[in-house]
Amino acid sequence: xxxxxxxxxxxxxxxxxxxxxxxxxxxxxxxxxxxxxxxxxxxxxxxxxxxxxxxxxxxxxxxxxxxxxxxxxxxxxxxxxxxxxxxxxxxxxxxxxxxxxxxxxxxxxxxxxxxxxxxxxxxxxxxxxxxxxxxxxxxxxxxxxxxxxxxxxxxxxxxxxxxxxxxxxxxxxxxxxxxxxxxxxxxxxxxxxxxxxxxxxxxxxxxxxxxxxxxxxxxxxxxxxxxxxxxxxxxxxxxxxxxxxxxxxxxxxxxxxxxxxxxxxxxxxxxxxxxxxxxxxxxxxxxxxxxxxxxxxxxxxxxxxxxxxxxxxxxxxxxxxxxxxxxxxxxxxxxxxxxxxxxxxxxxxxxxxxxxxxxxxxxxxxxxxxxxxxxxxxxxxxxxxxxxxxxxxxxxxxxxxxxxxxxxxxxxxxxxxxxxxxxxxxxxxxxxxxxxxxxxxxxxxxxxxxxxxxxxxxxxxxxxxxxxxxxxxxxxxxxxxxxxxxxxxxxxxxxxxxxxxxxxxxxxxxxxxxxxxxxxxxxxxxxxxxxxxxxxxxxxxxxxxxxxxxxxxxxxxxxxxxxxxxxxxxxxxxxxxxxxxxxxxxxxxxxxxxxxxxxxxxxxxxxxxxxxxxxxxxxxxxxxxxxxxxxxxxxxxxxxxxxxxxxxxxxxxxxxxxxxxxxxxxxxxxxxxxxxxxxxxxxxxxxxxxxxxxxxxxxxxxxxxxxxxxxxxxxxxxxxxxxxxxxxxxxxxxxxxxxxxxxxxxxxxxxxxxxxxxxxxxxxxxxxxxxxxxxxxxxxxxxxxxxxxxxxxxxxxxxxxxxxxxxxxxxxxxxxxxxxxxxxxxxxxxxxxxxxxxxxxxxxxxxxxxxxxxxxxxxxxxxxxxxxxxxxxxxxxxxxxxxxxxxxxxxxxxxxxxxxxxxxxxxxxxxxxxxxxxxxxxxxxxxxxxxxxxxxxxxxxxxxxxxxxxxxxxxxxxxxxxxxxxxxxxxxxxxxxxxxxxxxxxxxxxxxxxxxxxxxxxxxxxxxxxxxxxxxxxxxxxxxxxxxxxxxxxxxxxxxxxxxxxxxxxxxxxxxxxxxxxxxxxxxxxxxxxxxxxxxxxxxxxxxxxxxxxxxxxxxxxxxxxxxxxxxxxxxxxxxxxxxxxxxxxxxxxxxxxxxxxxxxxxxxxxxxxxxxxxxxxxxxxxxxxxxxxxxxxxxxxxxxxxxxxxxxxxxxxxxxxxxxxxxxxxxxxxxxxxxxxxxxxxxxxxxxxxxxxxxxxxxxxxxxxxxxxxxxxxxxxxxxxxxxx
Length: 1270
Known about the structure:
5-stranded antiparallel β-sheet, cytoplasm, globular, TPR-like_helical_dom_sf, alpha+beta, RNA-binding, mRNA binding, Clustered mitochondria protein homolog
């Protein structure tokens, strides 16, 4: 088969200057190249298709109205179009932006369907070759409409390797194995399976001949109401296209490499060996003149890499296919080859810091900077993750190999790795190994915060925290020069021993002072070991080191935020009453518990409101006193002791809220005093001083609350002079701890009751808690609070999610230490044994030890240093379900302070109504375990649920900094605000602009782009552009699948929205069921429709209360289906229920009540007519004279109208006159708002509710439904 190179003609065996298909073996059959991929906008490239499609009418877009008109204009003039002329195809247009590099056009051409077979080419403008790394704006003569020619260049060995790799990627682009294995930022997407590959095709179904293809709408058994089955396989529909499109069986380096000298002289670079699907064996020469292929049609969003790797917790059984390119990658050092700078590894620290130093004066500069920062961060995260896994798998040599394993440190690819253990008793006073495990995440939060403040001249390290196989690895970029000197010499600010020796530095104080206001950190003095006062503007552990590059670095930011006193009992310190009531302070496992930044911000905001109200109250008293007796009373301001007391009374005093002028005066007064104007009279100064003192402000002239992060730190001493200040700080910390318990937790539960927050799984519950500044260690308290809430039944879903989160988190803590004792060869046996003990009903699962366990135990004594685990690698096998569940219950009690009432999985499922499959998903996501996609029988008492073969992989769980696109985000927010005010067109333009900017910074794939596309789709739908709406929504689904995962709550929401553009809050299952029920009603599947709608009615009654307007709507929907079935009695019964609710809630004259009343009359007439007919039949038998009865099948328009209502879209027809009145009203209100400048708008009281509701709306505009307007 293979041909020896010596006997090949000089032109090489298959020099592939023509497509392979013409040489007798068609590589990819039946897929025409160059088919349009994006909806209605020609053949777009993957990375920029969005940008092209977005440009509709952007030239005339008005500048944004939020003060930065200049910048908006800048960006709107920037995009321009160039023509690309590539050999063999028609020239085409490409939208580019001046900040891009030539390199990016290269990448676009390699991703495009009709040019993807070229990798080795240059771009030429007027015969001049463009520099790959030049920005487009720096190229002379490049302008709107310029023609760029694609000119093929001779291949080199490096280019040929890149080309082979590219071909492999194209051939593999349909194969999901990389996504299942979590490799190369590939992830899963199933939208094209559900739409039969019908993506972005203007929303029209493909026709077969002249007939429309019939779709089966019958829902599968397992989603019908009442079904107890929770199949796993249904999560991942098997894609028909994944298997058969294999084109080559083998593509590998030939054994004839490297080319001999005489062939090199003819331009041979290397030889490839190919076996095609038809079993044809071919040798291919890569010469300097190259080769090329056609490509498969696939939506670009399914191909593009995501910025951060997404891992799937389930995967089907895959056949392991031979892939020689991948094999070569795995065993050659990928370091030099994968990076684009040949022959050297990347200097991560230099890249991370240089991108921060880029200029940021105007919008284009900021975009370039943010884009560079984001790119370097995502690359660094990927490299750090790979390195951390290599460290734990034992593939990296330690830099201190002679020390004990836990103390070892590693350097790989210019990244420093350390393990989460307490080395050299560093954290002895803080909780030892437990503190050492928590410190990296606290440090990462600190890095995230300082990066967000973004002070020029202050640098942090690139930091990634990776949890893998039970170990925590911290990966950091390396400060230049730090490895050559001792830490003691390097640190010029802060302390290396938690406050015994402390040093400070004026430059660091100056830099940190800039961060102190946004971070609410107080500048303070501490004593060092020589009893000298040292001034700091951070916690003592925060170290300042000047690198050899002259940059000022800060590291060890684990105490950036103040301590959480609820979990830090201090002798002699009395906690507030609210804390004591809930059993605090409570001893925690470590002393590094900090308040979250969100809590600090919420607390300060709460205190600011208090400050304003107190001052307003005093000013009003002063006024009143003046009026009563002009000048009799000298000190009109209430004395200081009264201020503290008024703190409680003011919150009940509703008058202040109405009195805008009082608050306005305070604001003005505070600003005047702050600007040091001598014109303020002493009495007013006194008012502000008293209010400042009452709320704990550090300044007595203006409101300014800051925390001292060193209070209650073991080993930190304060000078005598700041005794009073320290006392105030202690009180502030106690107040903050009490605020969390008395305001934030009840606030979260209230939001859940109101359905403004709707967690759907553990991750979204954690997110909701974190947004309110509640740490996960309060989870037990949150659940306890829910059980005592009056509306407990309406919080049933939150309670279940909370309990399953509590159980899986406790199990995760145990699993972490359990895994540390497992050798690589025993991983799948150990994990399956743990899952059996955790979830299976089988009473005594037995672990299967790997066959070579005894051998490795003997060896182990010799290579103890190599293994990170304990010496005994079989301890895990002795675990039993009873022991595990006992440990879970004690962990829940110790860590979360919650008593679980269950001794095994079956009891837990029964007592708390949990699903075992939910627990399996949660534990897999939290620990990185990937299991085989199949149906598991958890309740079989005769054999265990999991076997070793069911555990496919274990992935790392990665925490990292997420750099933000700040300008794009501001545009997005402004757009949202405009939409809420009813200015849909302006909102749409701003959001389009935001989308452009997001694309500019993040590339094509990001969770924020997803939100942008969702909102655009909704706006397109409301404004009547349905095909564009569908196209945008499909992109949102694809993106959500790729960047968040296929069963993330957001992805579920996107799928529902694809059906009907659902509003963000309507994600309760009643809304899903109503949607399904209505669609089934529309296709006349009445019985199935009823099952869904009646279930939706039951759920709405449970979660919204039986008198809710949502329940009235549900009754109406059920009545309509009964009417279609001609069961008028049932229909009447349901409609009467709905009518009663409308009448009680909205009154008899409301439109909804009238509609319901009309419908009741109609139903009664129909029922009477039917009864007459039946009587006629009984009376006269076959001679009966029967009038034809009207049984109405639902019209598509009526079904669509109801779908819109359910999903929060309400169309209000307005005449031109209404519209003009409305605009005038909106303008009047804006002027009023500006004159008040307070952000609190006074509503005219006498306006009718319907009128108010319709106000912020445009012609036939859609407004989101609220709870009070069904």
